[in-house]
Write a structure and sequence with these properties.
The complex is a heterodimer. Chain A starts with 13 loop residues before the first helix and ends with a helix. Chain A contains seven helices and five strands. By secondary structure, chain A is α+β, with helices and mostly antiparallel strands. By secondary structure, chain B is of the alpha/beta class. Chain B has three domains: 75 residues, Ubiquitin-like (UB roll); 115 residues, 2-Layer Sandwich (Alpha-Beta Plaits); 357 residues, Rossmann fold, CATH 3.40.50.1780. Chain B is built from 20 helices and 17 strands. A five-stranded mixed beta sheet of chain B has the order 2-1-5-3-4, with helices on both faces. Chain B has a four-stranded parallel beta sheet with strand order 11-10-13-14, with helices on both faces. A four-stranded mixed beta sheet of chain B has the order 12-17-16-15. Classes of the chains: A alpha+beta, B alpha/beta. Chains A and B meet through α3 and α4 of A and β7 of B. The complex binds iron/sulfur cluster (3 copies) and FE2/S2 (inorganic) cluster.
Chain lengths: 164, 577
Amino acid sequence: MQKKISNHPFNGTPEQAAKLEAVINANKHDKSLLMAVMQEAQGIYGYLPYEVQKMIADGMDVPIEKVFGVSTFYAQFSLTPKGEYNISICLGTACYVKGAGIIFDKFAEKLGIGADECTADGKFSLTACRCIGACGLAPVLTVNEEVYGRLTGADVDTILAKYQ
Amino acid sequence: MEMINCKVNGIAVSVPKGSTILEAARAAGVEIPTLCYMKKINEIGACRICVVEATGARGLVTACVYPASEGMEIKTNTEKVQKARKTTLELMLSTHDKKCLSCSRSTNCELQKLCLEYGVDEGAFEGYKPVYELDESTPHLVRDNNKCILCRRCVAVCKEQFVSVIGANDRGIDTSIGSAFKVKLSETPCISCGQCVAVCPTGALTEKDDTEKVWAALADPTKHVVVQTAPSIRATLGECFGMPIGTNVEGKMVSALRRLGFDKVFDTDFAADLTIVEEANELVERINNGGVLPMITSCSPGWVKFCEFYYPNLIDHLSSCKSPQQMAGAVIKTYYANKMGIDPKDIVSVSVMPCTAKKFEIGRPDQSASGYPDVDIALTTRELAKMIDRAGLKFTMLPDEEFDSPLGEDTGAAVIFGATGGVMEAALRTANDWLTGKDNLDVDFHAVRGTESIKEATVKINGADIKVAVASGATAAQKVMEKIKNGEADWTFIEIMGCPGGCVNGGGQPIQPQYVRDTVDLKAVRAKALYDQDAAMSIRKSHESPVVKALYSEWYDGFGGHKAHHDLHTTYVKRTK
Ligand code: SF4
Ligand code: SF4
Ligand code: SF4
Ligand code: FES
């Protein structure tokens, strides 16, 4: 799947920028540290939007396409922000055969977003994940740290209502 | 040098230690197909079309990166090898838009050629196939990723050009070549050099085809259609018709253009001479009046765009002279229009250029001396060849003809503009005469010739030492600009061309398969055709050009005079990356 690119307005803070700058300054002597810088940047901002990648590219003196290429190659990098509540639905085999796909689609429809997207108010984001090792509870999802199992279509509204 | 001995298809060969199997095979006169490999530029072993059997290796190995070793027996053509290559090709085709019938690279596509040789089944692997939108955002090229085989040759040359605006994004079956955040190429600091187009093995990258516009103009009886050809076209056009690299086809090119129906066939060379006298005059003025030095040539729009994007604070170093293409266009729509009594609005000014950036240049601001664009349509060498084919002209059998007057006469100085160092040498010839007040007989400045990416020379003119530099390719330009930026440059005058080797190796020149690019120094062989022509000419200095003399006696109020300045000079913009 191609990585989704965020169309949310960037709202980084000066504090975040200062942190990233410190990371860049500590690493810019060696371009092979690009990945490490990107990881830290993702830690600071939660994702790697254009503005952050541009800061990294300029700071590390590498073309922005290089940063972007790395960010879209490795699964660990995200180009979209996570919502205040990130709903992560397991689409591993066990969950999938028990209908996780249908549940995913239902969340997508209710929230009006697709995979790796975030609602306009920044409240919810939706991701699909690989097996989280709770197959006994299939189909299963997490909202931030909280786990919900043995889901049915009816649970979608209840779960969303809980976080409204 | 330590050598190793190995055998390629039974042929014994001795190669330097560290050579790859591909190099050993080439030394033995055996060709192994390649798609991603570009000698010294892209040695990534990605496409696997070059697989061979080699003793001591497990399974098939990629010849382009696998080292040959002592005693190795290499088999390049076994049944196993052929089967593997065929499967590789069929897998490539599973995500490929197989539109050879209308593809502009048909008959010189490296993929198509191999598919034919290996007798592939186009439909062997049908399945999920991503569909990509064309990127037609720039004036100079079209990217059709539906025909891309992900060889990354374009990525490698763009990096060689210090630009790196394209790269591989995403992964697996979704991998595609593009720019950061998937923006269109027009939104990146691409310098329009077209080097990516020239190396793409397939139809995934092509120049933006403007030939239909030219056909339309030629068919319109109300238009007076004038064409100019750049200095280097005569040295390369023949390649499109199977002639040996480095054949000078000036005469046949002129007769082809006439048969296509152009009302006048002019030579950009006259404007190259004009550029030299205006530029030499500008240089003398800068020296005498404490202007910005070193002054840098502005003939190459790829280079100019590079400077604007990457060194916006140094654009004052650029000569304000328009490029020869634009000067020729300006003269055609002013002086020539006036002389012939034609309204410039009825003239369609066409150029044939070695360069895709010329397509960008014609749309720049401040390039309309007559009030109308100096040049309306810029074609590449390849597009002209296509027109010649469509018109059914048998190029190699055409008679030799001469350019039209009054803008068809050139000098040796103008001819060599097409090679790196040529503009510098032409300028030095004129400067030498002007500063010594003599007609110097020795006009060869060998120090600025050759295909090295950066050349420096100190030339003695009238007792004074003048330091000059010549750079070609944007990476070389970057090195020169860093020196200027850091105050380490003591040159007075610099020639910079955007493409490595100058216009003879421009992004609009005939496509040569990578095998040829790896084994023939295109830059040098093509340039030789130009230096040979220069040496054989009776007038070899720009300021002695009869066209230049006529222009300044009939039309312009002296070098750098008000009128010349208005028509022949331009301005630059600071761009942000
Ligand atoms: S890129 Fe080559 S194989 Fe593909 S459609 Fe064009 S000519 Fe045919
Ligand atoms: S035209 Fe030149 S700068 Fe632009 S993408 Fe191609 S190689 Fe890079
Ligand atoms: S666009 Fe052409 S050169 Fe670039 S990766 Fe695709 S096939 Fe190769
Ligand atoms: S892997 Fe050798 S040419 Fe591509």
